[in-house]
């Protein structure tokens, strides 16, 4: 069983940024090859179990293709009411191949972030409700949220999710697990209407097809 303890504790600052359109899609993202081939993951993933959770498990006809470490920001936007909580406005993350690190229970995963060769793709939002994953060697995957459960430390860490693919590629399901950070501040106090609040986060994305 993989514990969220594999992550090194990180400082998770808030930052304010500019126009809202900036936060749905990165200005330049990796071009995925138009194929259903997976990455060059050399580790056997067939016997790896997810960390304990209550999300519906993947169906028996699906296989674990890849485990990706996502490192980026959860994004929120504020309206005119300073006492209201910010509204979710998607996420932006760089993806790193964490398959072998998880398969061999070999922390620390933050070393993957420092290794530019480990970068395999990006995660962002095609629109406000459609997460997208662009991963080298795979067709772009568009998904929808099917299920969510609280993270073990729900006050600090964003929820664990089960996402179902709505695109026609090899990927059929994505789980966001082992989250660290990303929770919105309790109010929009001090934030100008229309600005976006970004909160650093990490997560493991378990990708099945």
Write the layout of secondary structure elements.
Blueprint: E1 14-17, E2 64-77, E3 87-97, H1 99-103, H2 110-114, E4 119-127, E5 130-135, E6 141-149, E7 160-165, E8 173-181, E9 196-208
SS-based structural class? mainly beta
Mean pLDDT: 82
Largest sheet: 8 strands, antiparallel, barrel
* Tally of helical segments: 2
Distance between the termini: 21 Å
* Order of strands, widest sheet: 2-3-4-5-6-7-8-9
Query: What is the H/E string?
Result: EEEHHEEEEEE
Low-confidence stretches: 1-22, 28-40
Secondary structure: helix percent? under 10%
Number of strands: 9
Radius of gyration, Cα only, in angstroms?
17 Å
Instruction: Write down the domain tally.
Output: 1
Question: Could you walk me through the main structural features you see in this protein, from its secondary elements to its overall organization?
Answer:
Residues 1-17 form the signal peptide. This is Malate dehydrogenase. Residues 29-54 are annotated as: Disordered. Residues 32-44 have a biased composition (Polar residues). The protein is 5% helix and 39% strand. The chain has 209 residues and is mostly beta strands. The chain has one domain (13-45, 61-208). An eight-stranded antiparallel β-barrel has the order 2-3-4-5-6-7-8-9. The longest helix is centred in the middle third of the chain and has 5 residues, at 99-103. The radius of gyration is 17 Å and the shape is globular. Mean pLDDT is 82; it is low at 1-22 and 28-40.
């Amino acid at each position: 069983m993989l514990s969220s303890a594999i992550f090194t504790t990180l400082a998770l600052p808030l930052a304010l940024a500019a126009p809202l359109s900036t936060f749905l899609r990165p200005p330049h993202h990796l071009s995925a090859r138009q194929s259903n081939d997976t990455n060059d993951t050399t580790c056997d993933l067939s016997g790896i179990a997810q960390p304990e959770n209550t999300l519906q498990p993947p169906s028996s006809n699906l296989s674990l293709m890849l485990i990706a470490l996502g490192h980026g920001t959860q994004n929120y936007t504020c309206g005119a009411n300073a006492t209201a909580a910010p509204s979710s406005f998607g996420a932006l993350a760089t993806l790193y191949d964490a398959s072998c690190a998880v398969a061999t229970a070999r922390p620390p995963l933050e070393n993957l972030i420092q290794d530019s060769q480990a970068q395999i793709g990006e995660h962002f939002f095609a629109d406000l409700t459609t997460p997208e994953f662009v991963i080298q060697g795979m067709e772009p995957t568009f998904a929808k949220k099917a299920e969510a459960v609280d993270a073990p430390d729900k006050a600090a860490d964003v929820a664990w999710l089960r996402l179902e693919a709505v695109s026609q590629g090899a990927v059929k399901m994505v789980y966001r697990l082992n989250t660290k950070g990303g929770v919105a501040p309790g109010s929009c106090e001090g934030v100008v209407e229309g600005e976006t609040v970004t909160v650093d986060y990490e997560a493991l994305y378990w990708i099945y097809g």
